[in-house]
Amino acid sequence: MTEPTPPQLEPMPEDWQRALAVVAHPDDLEYGCSAAVAAWTDAGREVAYVLATRGEAGIDTLEPEKCGPLREREQRASAAVVGVPSVEFLDHKDGVIEYGTALRRDIAAAIRRHRPELVITLNHRDTWGGVAWNTPDHVAVGRATLDAAGDAGNRWIFPELTEQGLDPWDGVRWVAVAGSSSPTHAVDASAGLDRAVRSLLEHRAYIEALTDEDPETYARRFLTGNATATGERFGGRPAVAFELFPRG
After folding, report:
1. Less crowded by CB within 10 Å, the N or C end of the chain?
2. What gap in Å lies between CA 227 and CA 187, rounded to an integer?
């Protein structure tokens, strides 16, 4: 019996100006959706990054006190390649992020600061496509981001943020989850793919600790392969997929 053909992915909404991407670690966005970010910034849209950690536990051969500053520098350089000037770090501890009100509050505060219409995060489910187990950090940050999109607009949740001058922002219209096994929408990656590769390559210390493969070969193979596979559901064009959750 043949498997049913997956439905084609819809184009992502384009009637927005500001986006905020919230993920756990340096490199999460570069593995997940930077070709889409490049396309958006090319079109004149504003994108900012917020990372829960500095990725200080991400390289086994490098102590956290040295690794964190290195990975922060790599992330800022990586973001610049795709036109993102604003990169913030929330200073939660890499590897042991806890889902809860403290994390939701920090992300809600970021949403109130940046006032985005589109919020982006990474796969918040237990597995990657039912095949590989997801990390607790990804699950916690993804889930907290989905929740914080609502928290940010409610003046009675985290009222201390209002006292700090962060007025409620109920303008989030969508939360888009990259790396989802149930994508609904996509962005054409054709114009942004080369910059996505260069953006991932800025995480050179991390990649060199991860694989013996030539970093550029590794980055291009990974991103091109994913974009090509996604493109089979997007009219044959290389693409970045998202699961889109409309709000309000």
Report:
1. N
2. 10
